[in-house]
């Protein structure tokens, strides 16, 4: 299925249908993809011995799947046979700013958040695994797949890669000023507004063991100063 | 128990003892506290209908507990009686940069991450609840507890606040250059190093309904340009 054949809206399930803050829900595939593409790490939720475990990890994606290294979920995968449900949750969050209202109660956060649910598939085919590692690398460190040494056969065998369908997703977006500007609290005469939060890449720092003559490649230098998120 | 009476090291449990990347583990209480204090949102992991759910939310802390609004965990709390284990996981992650190695396999992320596990307690005492809301507010938006209107009795009643002990914690810290500088890959002659990632607060944006004469208070203006994380 090519991208153009994928439905442009996401089908809500009981899990992804928002029960609170319905005004923030989006079921546009484009919003999901934009949030995933703008992200750097996701937070992976797995159940280990009956307890939720939330682990940050890098990821990549194509049109159908999100890919993560299996090692971070290894404790879950190892014990998967014991678990009734192997469904995992992957959350990507961008914090765009703080919403400062007239009352403490109305304070909030502007954010973009995507949550995916599904039973991940462990990749076994070497070509599929290599392509997933390329997607993770190029999402995390664009340009490095062609610059750095690619995984050897041995490294590939040592790496577990999981694919999670993008099909079951919940997308929430909150933006804009506080909404108590027309409430009784507006009479308090307080300042209200937002304080933006921005994440940027800095200048590359060379490994101290490198000779000073070894300068960073253009694709790394070009990222310095750009926004992440 | 005052802070000085708390043990300075954290006692590892089966859950918090690192099974991989042992070199990154810290069991120093000071590291845990520094990571929590530097954070803005946490990712809360709960089990809902047997499935992990990872939700971003703001938080606050004192010397013994981390506090979150219960609403974000409401789906879990509502169904808590059905769940065998009500343990939750709270993860706070700072991404400090990308580690660019000579091989794709050795690429990584410099980060500071704290994971807390425990069965949260729902606060019922109004004074304790108010203090927890003060801590969440002052962690998220320093100065606003004294500036904005504080929660009314009705708002307090409408807010669920959870306290999670800081006792069972896993702290991981990864920093520094790639470690393949003395491997065979060093002979490839590639550049290697790190690309730092920094998050900063921007200039405040006033709610458009405010008159232009209403300027932001000093504690908000002072935050602009400062680093978060």
TrEMBL record, chains A, B:
Record's signal peptide:
none
UniProt cross-references to InterPro entries, sorted A to Z? Pyridox_Oxase-rel (IPR024747), Split_barrel_FMN-bd (IPR012349)
Its name, as the record gives it, is Pyridoxamine 5'-phosphate oxidase family protein
**Which organism is this protein's natural source?**
Streptomyces tabacisoli
